[in-house]
C-alpha cells in the first residue's frame, strides 16, 4: 500500500464525501420513526414473554411447597 501524505489523504476524503448521497430530512425522520416503532414493539413483546416465563417459573417452584 502506497504511503499518502496527510494533506493528500484529506483531499481524497473530501472527494469521497462529495460522492455520498445524503438522505433528505424527510427520509431521516421516517426511518427514525420506523426504528422507534419497531423497538417499542420488540420491547412490548419481550416484556410479555418475560412475564409469562416468570409466571411459569414461579408456578414450578411453588409446586414443592
Spell out the key features of this protein:
65 residues, mainly alpha, 0% strand, elongated
Topology, pairings included?
Elements: H1 6-19, H2 25-62
Main β sheet profile? none
**From the alpha-carbon coordinates, what is the Rg to the nearest angstrom?**
26 Å
Uncertain segments are none
* Beginning-to-end CA distance, first to last residue: 71 Å
Strand fraction equals under 5%
Question: Can you describe this structure?
Answer:
The N and C termini lie far apart (71 Å). The longest helix has 38 residues. This protein has two helices and no strands.
How is this structure best summarized?
With 65 residues, this protein is mainly α. Helix content is 80%, strand content 0%.
